[in-house]
Hints:
The chain is of the alpha+beta class. It has one domain (3-141): STM4215-like, CATH 3.30.2000. It has helices at residues 3-24, 82-92, 95-101; strands at 33-35, 46-55, 66-76, 111-117, 121-123, 131-141.
Amino acid sequence: MNIAEVREAIAKKIKDHLADLRNDDEDFKVQFQVSPYVLTNPTANFIQVFPSSSNYATAMGRGHDARSFTIQVATALTSDIGAQKAIDHILSNDVIPNALYARDDTDPWQDIHVESDTGYTRFEKDGSAPLLGVEITVTVIA
């Protein structure tokens, strides 16, 4: 499994789906910086993708590998409800599953499953406002 290809494909699908959502849904105008890599100094609002756990040779005779990826979504927690509404919109509209389950001939995986999310998580960042986010776990089978 080429991890870089998978990360880039996940990020592209999310970015494209968010652009479509902003065009179609007047209530969703939040702009997100979408990166297939961990950002060194992220500014809200961002979505970044990074590999997490892996299971090798999950079928007989070496079979296939299953690798989990974390999709971290974060917004600035600078007001009481703005950040929550942005995260609510991501979660309630199944943005990540809808983006990733849209099959494409260029997908670098055999199958992909959106497994879970953490619910709201508060992230602290040195020298700036706290972030409100959610981490979504997906498993890629190649």
